Amino acid sequence: MEEYPPLASLSLTHVHYNPADRFSYLCAWLALVPQGLCVVYATLIWSNREIEILLMFAGQTACEAVNWCLKRYIKEERPREMHGKGYGMPSSHAQFVTFFSLTLTFFLLFRHVPHPTETHTPFTFFQRLILSILALVSAAAVASSRIYLNYHTPKQVLVGCAAGAIFAVVWFAFTTFLRRAGWVEWALDTYLARLFRVRDLVIQEDLVDSGWARWEERRLRRRRSEGKKSR
C-alpha cells in the first residue's frame, strides 16, 4: 500500500476554542479581525486609490515584518495549553490591531480635516474622538481574546501592544515628514500613480463623500438639461 506524506494545516484562519464556552466562541471570531482588516485594506485601495490608505497599509505590512523578526529573535514559546505552532513573543494579533487602531486615531484626530459641502456635513472632532475610542476598545478586545484562548501569555500580548503602539507613532511621524517634505506630492506625479489614478482627497473629504458633491452637481445639471429639452 502506497504511503503518503503527512498533511499540514494552513493555520491562517484555524482557531482553537472551547465549544462549550460562548465567550471562547466570541474570542474565536475576534481572532479573525486582522484577516478581515486586510480585506478592508484591499477593498479600499482598489476602489478609492487613496494614497493615505496605501501609506497605512504599507505601515501595517512593515509592522508585521517587524513582528516576524522579533518572534524569531526572542524565540519565546507559546503557552503550554496551546496546541499550535510558532513562537509567541510578541503577539502578532495584538501588534496588528494596536498599530491599526492607533494609526486610525492619529489620522482622525491630527491629519483628517474634512470640509463641509452643500450635500454633506462631516464628522465633528468629538465624533471622530468617539470613533477613535471605539477603535482602541475593539483592539483591546482582540488582544485580550488571545490570552483567553491560550494562544499567548499576558506578557506576550502586552509586548505586542507596545510594539504596535511604538511602530504606529514612528510610522505616523515618518508619513508626516513625507507629506511636509513634498515626497507624497512627488509620488502622486509619477507615471505609476497617475496610471492607477492614485489620489489624495481623504485628508480634506470624508471617504464616503469623496466625489459625491461633484456627482450631485453633474446629476442636477443633467436633470436641468433634460427638463429644457422636454419643454
From TrEMBL:
One Gene Ontology cellular component term attached to this UniProt record is: endoplasmic reticulum membrane
Starting at the broadest rank, the lineage of the source organism is: Eukaryota, Fungi, Dikarya, Ascomycota, Pezizomycotina
Q: List where in the cell it is found.
A: Endoplasmic reticulum membrane
**Which Pfam family, just one, is annotated for this protein?**
PAP2
| Main function | Required for efficient N-glycosylation. Necessary for maintaining optimal levels of dolichol-linked oligosaccharides. Hydrolyzes dolichyl pyrophosphate at a very high rate and dolichyl monophosphate at a much lower rate. Does not act on phosphatidate.
Q: What domain of life does the native source organism fall in?
A: Eukaryota
Q: What is the protein name for this chain?
A: Dolichyldiphosphatase
The EC number(s) this enzyme carries: 3.6.1.43
Q: How does it sit in the membrane?
A: Multi-pass membrane protein
Matching entries from CDD domains are given as: PAP2_dolichyldiphosphatase
Q: Which reaction does it catalyse?
A: a di-trans,poly-cis-dolichyl diphosphate + H2O = a di-trans,poly-cis-dolichyl phosphate + phosphate + H(+)
Query: Its principal location?
Result: endoplasmic reticulum
Q: Which UniProt keywords apply?
A: Endoplasmic reticulum, Hydrolase, Membrane, Transmembrane, Transmembrane helix
Record-annotated Phosphatidic acid phosphatase type 2/haloperoxidase domain positions: 53-172
Q: Where are the transmembrane segments?
A: 23-46, 94-113, 125-145, 157-178
**Pathway(s) of this molecule:** Protein modification; protein glycosylation
GO terms for biological process? lipid biosynthetic process; protein N-linked glycosylation
Report the top EC class in one word: hydrolase
Q: Which organism is it from?
A: Zopfia rhizophila CBS 207.26
Q: Which GO terms describe its molecular function?
A: dolichyldiphosphatase activity
Its family remark reads: Belongs to the dolichyldiphosphatase family.
